[in-house]
Each structure stands twice: as C-alpha cells, then as structure tokens.
C-alpha cells in the first residue's frame, strides 16, 4: 500500500520544486475547465476539481483569477485534451496526459521522448487498462479510525486508507472526490495535504538498478514538455519500506 503514497509524494515534491512550471500548467487547466463550462466552480464540477487540486500546490490566486477571467472574456485559445500510452525500459508502463493547441507538435515530442529513452508509444488502451482512475485526498492530525468514522457518518465509500507520516490518505472513486472533501469539511477539516485525481497502477514493477536512470530520464523528459500536464507510471523505486 505504501507504494501508492510514496509515488504520489515524490511526484508532488518534484512539482513543488518547479513552481513556475506547475503554475503555468494549472493556469492552462483552469482556463480550459472554465471555458468548457460556466466560469463558476459552484456550477462547474470540472473547474471545482481543478481549483481544489491547485490549492494543495499553493497556486497563487492571481494566476487562478487570470485564467478564469481569460475564459470569461472568450479567450481564443483552444486546447485538445490528449492521452498517450507507452512503454518504457523493461516493459514499464507510462501514461501521458496533455493539453495542446498543436496536436502534431505534441505527438511528435512525446514520441521522441519515448524512442530516445528506451521506450515506445503504444496504441490507445494498451496501458490504461492496467491503471485505475482514483481520487486521492490526504488529511493530517487524524487517525485512520477517525477518518473512517467521518467517512462512514457521511455515507462515503473509500477504496482504501493509508496512514503514514502523520497523514491519512484516502483512495476513492473519482466521482467521490467532492463527497470525501465535503465529509471532511463537515467535520471541521479544511486543509488537505493532497487532493488529486490520478491514475494508480494495479501492479508495480521494480526495475533493475542499471535501468532506473534511463527510466527516470524518460519521465523527466516527458514532464518537461510544455504541453504535458500529467505523467503516470507503474514503476516502484523500492523506497516504501
């Protein structure tokens, strides 16, 4: 179970170390969500989810407001939401989610990232079936028993609970994202250590030590691409003791 949280922690720490990049990506995602529906999070579920996620990364209000105002003003930029699936070294599995205004550019860059770093692009569905879309919400200063009681009282189902490093991590269906948060808020909890919609692998792969650097390079290159929003994989680096 620990592998789930460790991989998410590492990913979040990596993003926290690149604030300008993560702010830009959230700005784009907020703009797209606001433009596709009402620019009000209370009536736009997708926008509300993005804003909740942005809060855990401390995205400045100015960036959020600018993206929403741009959408309100009928911004002319249009983005396609794309998902690429591929294989890294030793059969590792990778999912890449992108928002792009140039599909050909993004496809070329993602393909090059895979082929130059020991991987290859797969067809749609070749990887995603081995992952589960999951809502991940973390709270601090509560025990697993207290969290479970809060969720049960609110009649909210969770797939799994993990207690680690002073936090309790709730894994739930994506459709339960708001329900889990609302249950916590009704219990007086308003701050979340993590609030993500992610893709969790059903099984994990441990790579040989001599292959890990190549895989890490692949992930780094993919995450550095301007159009890439999220990168998910099934590799366990073996630090979840």
* Total helical segments: 8
Largest beta-sheet details? 4 strands, antiparallel
What distance separates the N and C termini?
11 Å
Percent in strands: 15-25%
Structural class assignment: alpha+beta
Low-confidence stretches: none
Strand numbers in spatial order across the main sheet = 3-1-2-8
| Helix percentage | 40-55%
Radius of gyration using CA atoms only: 18 Å
Number of strands: 8
Order of helices and strands: HHHHEEHEEHEEHEHE
Would you kindly provide a brief summary of this structure?
This protein is α+β, with helices and mostly antiparallel strands.
Descriptive overview:
- This protein has 241 residues and is of the alpha+beta class.
- It contains eight helices and eight strands.
- It has helices spanning 2-16, 19-36, 45-56, 61-72, 103-115, 144-153, 177-186, 212-224; strands at residues 80-87, 93-100, 120-121, 131-140, 160-164, 167-172, 194-201, 228-233.
- The chain has a four-stranded antiparallel β-sheet with strand order 3-1-2-8. Strands 5-6-4-7 form a four-stranded antiparallel β-sheet, sandwiched between helices.
- Strand 1 and strand 2 form a beta hairpin.
- Helix 2 (19-36) packs antiparallel against helix 3 (45-56).
- The chain is globular.
């Amino acid at each position: 179970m620990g592998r789930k949280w460790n991989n998410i922690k590492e990913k979040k720490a990596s993003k926290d170390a690149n604030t300008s990049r993560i702010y830009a990506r959230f700005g784009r995602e907020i703009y797209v969500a606001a433009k596709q529906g009402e620019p009000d999070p209370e009536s736009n579920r997708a926008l509300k989810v993005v804003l909740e996620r942005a809060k855990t990364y401390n995205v400045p209000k100015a960036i959020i407001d600018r993206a929403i105002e741009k959408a309100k003003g009928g911004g002319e930029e249009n983005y396609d939401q794309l998902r690429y699936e591929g294989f890294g070294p030793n059969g590792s599995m990778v999912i890449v989610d992108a928002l792009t205004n140039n599909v050909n550019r993004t496809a070329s860059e993602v393909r090059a990232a895979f082929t130059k770093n020991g991987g290859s692009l797969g067809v749609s569905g070749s990887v995603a079936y081995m992952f589960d879309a999951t809502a991940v919400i973390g709270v601090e200063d509560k025990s697993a028993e207290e969290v479970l009681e809060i969720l049960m009282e609110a009649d909210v189902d969770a797939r799994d609970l993990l207690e680690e490093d002073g936090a309790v991590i709730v894994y739930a269906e994506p459709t339960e994202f708001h329900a889990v948060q609302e249950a916590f808020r009704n219990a007086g909890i308003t701050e979340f250590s993590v609030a993500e919609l992610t893709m969790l692998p059903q099984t994990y792969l441990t790579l040989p030590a001599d292959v890990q650097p190549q895989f890490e390079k692949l992930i780094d290159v993919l995450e550095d691409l301007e159009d890439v929003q999220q990168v998910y994989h099934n590799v366990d680096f073996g630090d979840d003791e």
